[in-house]
Design brief:
This is Transcriptional regulator. The structure is a single chain. It contains 16 helices and 17 strands. By secondary structure, the protein is α/β, with parallel strands linked by helices. The protein has four domains: 94 residues, Rossmann fold (3-Layer(aba) Sandwich), CATH 3.40.50.1860; 100 residues, 3-Layer(aba) Sandwich (Rossmann fold); 139 residues, Alpha-Beta Plaits, CATH 3.30.70; 70 residues, Winged helix-like DNA-binding domain superfamily/Winged helix DNA-binding domain (Arc Repressor Mutant, subunit A, Orthogonal Bundle), CATH 1.10.10. The protein has a six-stranded mixed sheet. A four-stranded parallel sheet has the order 2-1-3-4, sandwiched between helices. It has a four-stranded parallel sheet with strand order 6-5-7-8, sandwiched between helices. Helix 15 packs across helix 16. The relative contact order is 0.09.
Length: 440
Amino acid sequence: MMIIGVIGPETSLKILRKKSAQFSVQLMPLAYRDFHETIKLIEENERKCDALLFTGQTPYLYATSLLQPAVPWDFMPRNMLSTMCALVKAGLKYKNRIQNVSMDGFGDEIIEEIREELKGTEESVRLYNTRFDIMAEDYFQRVVQYHAENYRTGRADLCVTGLEKIYEKLRAMGIPSIKTGPNFSLLQQKLQFLLLRHQITAAERNLPAVVAIRPEFQLSREMHMHNELQTLRLQAQIGESVYYFAQHLGGAVFQTDATDYYVACDLRTLMAETGDFTGLSLLRMPFRNPCLDKISAGIGIGYTAREARYAADKAQQRSRKTPASCCYGLDERGHFFGPISLSDDPDAKGLFNENLRQISVQTGIGIRSLSKIEQALLQYRTDTVTSSELARYCSLSLRSMNRLLQKLEEFRYLVVLGKEPQDAAGRPRRLLRIDLRYHD
């Protein structure tokens, strides 16, 4: 599922959280107290997201003047509907006739639209709008001073702003103020637009990928001495398998020592040849050799070849902790996925599925159900989901999925990370992390 980081004040993010269940994307709230904090938020979180959405134009303009986007960025402009809603709220709140309004940061087009809608009352309603340089160190002070002066001199009965800090300052000074908030229909449009951009970008971009392969031989010195020739033949077979694998991917092979192999290729080809990482059957390893303990592999994805190799090493380290031959992956956002079967060989698959068999015996959950969950997590490259998402991925009813998840939680294969609030009438959704590696 696409992850969109939403940057804005806590009050705006609180409104969005109530509607989050209605979106086809996952929102990552990134709250600031002062829009100058957006730079730090972006630097710390941009690589975790597929896109960034700013709840206002001011923080967006500020960030774009200092940073180059690594993922698509967009912002929610103040539009006619949100502005008129703010004016209606002000009329209800202050119960007086609003004749003059002091505004900040609004585009000329919006001001003209409002004036057009207020035709007939033009002589009695006046709009004052200012747009100071947001890069100025005294930006907040200048805007607050502008509104305060308009109110003090009688030019304004009400101040309208989109910035939380300015709104709170004006309220503290006793000046009638209202803050514009995010409009839900506009938010839906922006999210759909970012989703489309992400899909187009994902189809166009081709990140580097590296597959790290480590055969682990039997450690018995006696076995090694008696089967030295067989071990040498085995190493040659493994080398041939790796080169065949690389050739099929159109990739390149390099080694760091006699046993560790790296295959460098592109993400699009690797995903196509592995069925979206559902299996690495092209890696034709001789699994049934008495000199071979297991194969540990790791898939690494990064924005550069160096990042991809580093991720492949970390993923391979995770694979080495499992008793059977398998592969894990680590994507460009730092998320692990897997395990992935390395062979279509029935014996090898039996060894690979031994992990699920042990979990099945332990929990009472059928292997078929465990396999569905495992493949869903693998296909969507995540280990963090809600029960409704997982039920949808596995084509199961929510009630059936909840029964399975209850057992997984009981045996510590599931951890509840927190709760995602829905709308006011709905119950919060639990955010779950699932790790299907057998343990006692």
